[in-house]
Amino acid sequence: MTLTSHEFPLPNKLAPETLRVIPLGGIGEIGRNMTVMQYNQDIVIVDVGVLFPEENQPGVDLILPDFEYLRDKWQKVKAIILTHAHEDHMGGVPYLLREAPHVPIYGSKLTLALLAEKLKEHRIKSDLRMVKEGDVEKIGEFSVEFIAVNHSIPDALALSMKTGAGTLIHTGDFKMDQLPLDGRITDLNTFARLGDEGVDLALVDSTNAEVPGFVPQEKDIAPVIESIMSRAPRRVIVASFASHIHRVQQIIDAAKQNKRKVAFVGRSMVRNMGVARDLGYLTIPPNATINIDDIENYADNEVVLITTGSQGEPMAALSRMAGLDHKIRIGDGDTVILASSLIPGNENSVNRVINGLTKQGANVVHSGNAKVHVSGHAASGELLYFYNLLKPRNVMPVHGEPRHLRANAALAIKTGVKKENVVITADGMVVDLHNRKAKIV
Predict the structure, then answer these.
(1) Which CATH superfamily is domain 5-214+376-440 in?
(2) 218-365: CATH, from 3.40.50.620, 3.40.50.300, 1.10.10.10, 3.40.50.10710
(3) For residue 310, what pLDDT is reported?
């Protein structure tokens, strides 16, 4: 069972010249990432994500981080910093702002644009402050440098946070694709410079720490999708995360090669792709897209639908198609591509969707039978490279289930980090960095 913050006693009073790190979500689980950093009287929050419910949690729409620790400290919170625009890192922001509307939010151009659309739906106004890689912002007693990393969404950032207690690195979600579609590589030069200057504590993405080698390149997906599409006799329905702009770009490109029109299905997909197109992150050729209501005007082999629901979410478009509860009806000979990884805990839901689509005659292609997805998280080879580059004194694995955290810890130790300097935590545990030593308190 994942521990949550209310199962731990309140920590001792914060000592002078000490940086306190408290994860309120995202440790021991995949989702609802949120970390509180406190130095003296100033607090900075990194990410406020949500976790989507499993099938044994009926009636639950979203699972939020535990805000209880902050409820008597809102006046100390100087900022929320978002590493990127995935729901498990920013989906909880509207709920936090209901309690602390004064807190400014820092993020990259795309991250804040997608957040602004979300806040508009919640009828919330906020102080959004755009940053980019290379920027350094003074936020209370924190000096924060923003570092380019690549992930499965554009504009992701890692953070270097300097205080009187030392330097902390938070990677956010990252990988080291050397030929990314947008040409924006993970900034290894900056990480090397920070390593040479001295890194006292590194919070490092653990999701793929068990996976050997290096994550394949995103561009390797394009020929697979194009090949599947070229052989599909009828409609092609591709399910992806509504934020995976690079994947959607490859689907649009493949559709153009096969003389097919593209229709976006699902509110979040339509919204996000509109934002990405307007900001220049998504290139849509003229006359390449059609409205979902117009697909009947085209032959089945002239249409590609890009939809939400790759994780079997009950209310997402693909799940409703599988359950015969959507205006789009799957036909015999349709091809459905699940172009995403399977998030742990969603296996039964996804299998139910695959079975429902197959019963209706669809050919379902997924990562288990074709190379239609590559991960956005660094595998073990990349993490080893990263640790050797950064040379952190202390390491705190984040973003992952217990097995991922321990695998990440083992990699850090292999590269020379002392075993006693690697802290494995749970949501609600408190880690203090003092005199260049990190320990659970």
Answers:
(1) Ribonuclease Z/Hydroxyacylglutathione hydrolase-like (3.60.15.10)
(2) 3.40.50.10710
(3) 67
Tell whether the model's pLDDT for residue 2 goes beyond 50: no
Q: How far apart are CA 114 and CA 253, in angstroms?
A: 23
Residue with tokens 């599947």: 228
- Give residue-wise pLDDT tens across range 51-68: 876 666 767 778 899 999
Confidence of residue 4 (pLDDT cuts 50, 70, 90): very low
Q: Evaluate whether 5-214+376-440 and 218-365 have a shared fold.
A: no
DSSP state letters, 200-254: SEEEEE-TBTTS-S-PPPGGGHHHHHHHHHHH-SS-EEEE--TT-HHHHHHHHHH
Bridge partners, 170 (sequence order): 159, 203
d(CA 127, CA 365): 43
- What size, in residues, is the chain? 441
Structural domain spans, the chain: 5-214+376-440, 218-365
What is the pTM for the complete model shown?
A: 0.92
How many H-runs (helices) and E-runs (strands) does the chain carry?
11, 19
Average pLDDT of every residue of the chain: 91
Query: Are 417 and 387 spatial neighbours (Cβ–Cβ below 8 Å)?
Result: yes
Burial annotation 136-150 (CB, 10 A radius, 16+ → b, else e): eeebbbbebbbbbbb
- Whether pLDDT at 111 is above 80: yes
CA distance 16 to 296: 67
